Amino acid sequence: MEEFGAYIRKVFPRVFSSSFVHHEVVGGFSHLFTVHGSDPLLQPYMLLAHLDVVPASDEGWEVPPFSGQERDGFLYGRGTLDDKNAAMGILQALEFLLKRNYKPIRSFYIAIGHDEEVSGRDGARKIASKLESAGVRLSFLSDEGLAVLDGVMKGIERPVALVGTTEKGSITLTLTVQSVPGHSSFPPKETSIGILAAAVSRLEQNPLPSLFGKGPELATFEQLATQFTFPLNIVMANLWLFAPIVARILAWKPSTNALVRTTTAVTLFQGGVKANVIPPFANATVNFRIHPAQTVEEVLELVRATIADDRVKISVQEAFNPLPVSPYDEDSFGFQVIRHTIHEIFSEVGAVAPGVCIGNTDSRHYLNLTKNIYRFSPIWLKAEDLSRIHGLNERISLEMYERGVQFYLHLIQNSDTPELPKAHKSLHEL
Ligand SMILES: CCCCCCCC/C=C\CCCCCCCC(=O)NCC(=O)O
Ligand SMILES: [Zn+2]
Ligand SMILES: [Zn+2]
């Protein structure tokens, strides 16, 4: 992380030497840039990204995950989609603009957190509280999240862009079973490992109920209705009638099932000490992502009822409710400027619609600074790419990285206006 700090100083010299830009390190490794605009009457906005990544071992990768190798027009590596593309893309856009003598009109902040993948406690949270203490209010905030989706949803022919206007809540539980150790030659009927395995299996076999149509995902499908081919366009325009059938179809695939319900993921499992010792303990970590129409308390209640075994102790590691829904009407400057910029840079998309971000982001730490939080990563995802995020062979095409830089470059310029942008500008301006 220290190397990242040295690296951006080296490759973005204008950002670090411009008289408009103030840079500071927060929480040890996070970066906060304040870009001073000429019009103090325009409320500032914020571009958010993070530099940390989830772990990756070489196994299963076509190239080592931290080698940053290029192959067939793709840059491979952990973080290329989540979220180095944004961390570097935003700074590269600003460097380019400063090189062209750009003078910002509206002030903005760039915040690059260093611990988003582990809650943002020392990065985003500290940056947010620093700005809050200084009385800063933001016009809008743009963060990673949803994307341009191409072929992710059957029945939609053109790619569509979803902007996360909210994100699911989360609860992570530790399940523990303890038992008396002993000799494995005369075992009890059930061991702590068997008891816990049965409990997590019950959780997997009994998914939380479908809530499709009871949350903001309804607006996504209503707004995308015209993008669906016949007869799905009729179905999506009449979800008051067809929601139960649509929910069953969406539940078939993990990516769309995530929109239907609170999801259950058993992510860690440990137990036992030796091959011939009855295990004294077993513990598991289960991560639930909470549908916007449900709460932490409701999920806990349902989980307790499903496990239904007092030998399994349940403790909460972390929990937060689904996030508030940001406005996406015609008068919402933040949503509209992002929507306009998406159409400029991703001219192939048939529609830009609000959506529920199924993953969590640093943006939740900024709730006291603005009600206008939008989660959109300027990346193009095909169905087969979804498994690369936090998975194997994460990669971005060089063309798509460049489009990401263009996206931030245009977003910065478009945000300089006090009004909503009107005409589309040409990409050839660059
Ligand atoms: C037509 C509707 C189809 C919707 C399908 C959703 C497709 C999902 C698209 C993008 C992936 C979402 C990733 C969100 C960013 C996650 C950031 C992150 O890793 N945060 C940490 C965490 O959540 O644990
Ligand atoms: Zn991320
Ligand atoms: Zn991530």
Describe the structure.
This protein has 430 residues and is an alpha/beta fold. The protein has two domains: 256 residues, Zn peptidases (Aminopeptidase), CATH 3.40.630; 152 residues, Alpha-Beta Plaits, CATH 3.30.70.360. It is 30% helix and 24% strand. Strands 1, 2, 3, 6, 7, 8, 13 and 14 form an eight-stranded mixed sheet that branches. It has a four-stranded antiparallel sheet with strand order 10-11-9-12, covered by helices on one side. Strand 1 and strand 2 form a beta hairpin. Helix 3 crosses helix 12. The two termini are 32 Å apart. The C terminus is likely disordered. The protein binds the ligand CCCCCCCC/C=C\CCCCCCCC(=O)NCC(=O)O and zinc ion (2 copies). The ligand CCCCCCCC/C=C\CCCCCCCC(=O)NCC(=O)O binds next to strand 7 and helix 9. Ligand LD2E54VC binds next to strand 7 and helix 9. This is N-fatty-acyl-amino acid synthase/hydrolase PM20D1 isoform X4. GO terms for molecular function: aminoacylase activity; metal ion binding; peptidase activity. Keywords: Hydrolase, Metal-binding, Protease, Zinc. It comes from Geotrypetes seraphini.
Q: Enumerate how many helices there are, as a single number.
A: 12
Please state the structural category. alpha/beta
CATH architecture level-2 label of the largest domain: 3-Layer(aba) Sandwich
Q: Specify the overall morphology.
A: globular
Family: Belongs to the peptidase M20A family.
Protein name: N-fatty-acyl-amino acid synthase/hydrolase PM20D1 isoform X4
Binding site for Zn(2+) 1: 50, 82, 144
Cofactor: Zn(2+)
